[in-house]
Specification:
Blueprint (H helix, E strand, L loop, with lengths): L2 E5 L21 H11 L1 E2 L4 E3 L2 H10 L3 E4 L2 E4 L9 H19 L6 H13 L11 E2 L7 E5 L7 H11 L8 E2 L2 E5 L3 E6 L5 E6 L5 E5 L2 E2 L11 H38 L2 E6 L2 H28 L13
Parallel strand pairs: 2-6, 3-5
Antiparallel strand pairs: 1-7, 4-5, 4-7, 8-13, 9-12, 10-11, 11-14
Helix pairs in contact: 3-4, 6-7
Amino acid sequence: MRSAIRQLQSQSQYVAHSGVRQHTHPLDPATSTRFAPRFGYDLSTVRIHHDCSAAVTARSLGAAAYTIGRDVFFAPGQYAPHTPAGQRLLAHELTHVVQQAEGTHGQSLHALEAEAEQHANTATTPAPIHRLRPLPEPAQPLLQCYRVPGSLRCHDVVDWLNANSPYAPEWAETRCTYDFNGGVQTRSETLRDGRVRVTARGTPSATVGVDCPIDRPEWEPTDRPNRDAEVAAWQAMRATLDAHEAEHRRIGQRWRAILEGRFRAVSFTVTGSDAADAMQQAQDRLTALQQQWQADAQAAQDAIDPFRGAVLRCP
């Protein structure tokens, strides 16, 4: 997991949010003009922090930069919007600003970080000009930053994970999503009273795909005398954690086959006041079935959680 995302639950958790608007400034006009068309939003409400307070917090998080709502905080020397490296980092963080403004509900950390990296990788490429929209106010500010702080000692890592994991009490998550490809065959008939009956049946060509990204923590201890032993302890813990998450992926693959079988075996009849009404009912019925199937698949995943078998045995 390249980012740790959690809701800000109190002012005492790493970020003194009460001072978040102090010592800030907006993007300069040239930088705003460069990045606004890339996202389609007016970025004038974004606030940049790179003072001593922001630097201290960034270092405590082991981050080059991190984002909370419309506020972007930078470690010392990291805010450099007129250099290629600085533009890349800023593009990454502005993506998180937009993600929070638009809402991140239901999106995996992997997907959020992949989108941010996509914008970062094209930061120096001119973007087409679009009509800019006002940036929405985020419904719930989130902390988005990189990895477990490397400055933490091994014995402090567990406390940090328990306090910051978005999947607490667990440290990782595998979230499987299913795509239903193809449709069903429908046959309609008009009844004597003018109503329309639609019969829907599955087809042998219908398929279901599955994607099971794993979000898990990364930690690279800073150089110190026992670093190798700490890395070995972390890797041993991760091996256990990864084995559990791999089981989630196997469950996802098994349920992919189950859902595909259900999709192909669909058979139901609906009756509507006219053809349009009957077809809408058929679509709603199919959607409800697919949602129930996915809930069944998720229940199978939930059955092996919460997992507390990953233990970090510090040297």
